[in-house]
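lol forgot to send this yesterday, sorry. struct tokens for the thing we talked abt
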């Protein structure tokens, strides 16, 4: 089985959505050959993992049938792993996780942190693979209604800590768990920025962090002009800027739709850390 590379820098997880309706690349990779080609291209560009998902989680999305999700994901995972690519599976379903690991996936990326499917945590424990537990409050059709917090940082930390405890109680090894604040999932732009400003609090949970900012709505809102929010495909540079900051902050991984610019940004952040670049101080 291919395992996750440990290069001693922030990893890049390249997004491969094999869905008809994801917010930024829905429908683009539904044909098997096209999906595999894109996965191979991301690996060639330096993706440490290719994250294959068969169910959209964009706000308002309805759930895919299990059979459809399996049919989209498994052949892509098989083909990519056969080509030597390290693959993760983006799923909330234990059955899909098990089939993808059987096909060669080395990590289960569960945006629900085990809440959507009661079989997920024990299944991952049995599979013995790495597990991303993302902060989540409910399915996409109602997550907008769940974006209410008194103190978003404290509440996300507490809720993620509970998911970590549940994962450990189910038998997943502690050193296999990676945590993710779940930017945009039951969170407004302000919530996302607050979490990004307090990653140290999340890191205090004692596990590595994965962060997905790529092309998300809060970047479109930040970059809005008179014509409205910046379109999805024109948010890339802002995502790369965030990757630089995230790599400098020492996150375990970033989840992105393009790979090369993010790998470059990580190289810059890593090199600056070696050079001990100090923050500029003084009056401006
Ligand atoms: N975001 C999306 C899907 N899966 N997984 C993790 N771990 N973290 C994320 O932030 C995340 C995710 C939604 O984005 P997409 O539709 O562009 O894949």
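and heres what i got for the seq, position by position
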């Amino acid at each position: 089985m291919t395992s996750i590379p440990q290069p001693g820098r922030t990893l890049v997880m390249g997004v491969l959505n094999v869905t008809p309706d994801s917010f930024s690349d829905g429908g683009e990779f539904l044909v098997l050959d096209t999906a595999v080609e894109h996965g191979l291209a991301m690996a060639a560009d330096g993706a440490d993992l290719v994250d294959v998902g068969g169910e959209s989680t964009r706000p308002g999305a309805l759930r895919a049938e299990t059979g459809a999700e399996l049919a989209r994901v498994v052949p892509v995972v098989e083909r990519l792993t056969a080509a030597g690519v390290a693959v993760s599976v983006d799923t909330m379903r234990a059955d899909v996780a098990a089939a993808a690991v059987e096909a060669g996936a080395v990590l289960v990326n569960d945006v629900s942190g085990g809440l959507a499917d009661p079989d997920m945590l024990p299944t991952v424990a049995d599979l013995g693979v790495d597990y991303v537990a993302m902060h989540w409050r409910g399915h996409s059709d109602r997550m907008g209604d769940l974006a209410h917090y008194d103190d978003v940082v404290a509440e996300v930390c507490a809720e993620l800590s509970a998911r970590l405890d549940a994962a450990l109680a189910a038998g997943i090894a502690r050193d296999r768990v990676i945590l993710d604040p779940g930017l945009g999932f039951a969170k407004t732009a302000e919530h996302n920025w607050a979490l990004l400003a307090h990653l140290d609090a999340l890191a205090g949970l004692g596990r590595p962090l994965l962060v997905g900012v790529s092309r998300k709505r809060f970047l479109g809102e930040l970059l809005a002009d008179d014509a409205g929010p910046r379109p999805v495909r024109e948010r890339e540079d802002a995502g790369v800027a965030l990757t630089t900051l995230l790599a400098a902050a020492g996150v375990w991984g970033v989840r992105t739709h393009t790979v090369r610019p993010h790998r470059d940004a990580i190289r810059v952040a890593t090199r600056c850390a070696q050079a001990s670049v100090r923050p500029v101080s003084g009056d401006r």
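Residues 152-169 form the longest helix (18 residues). anyway ping me if u want another try
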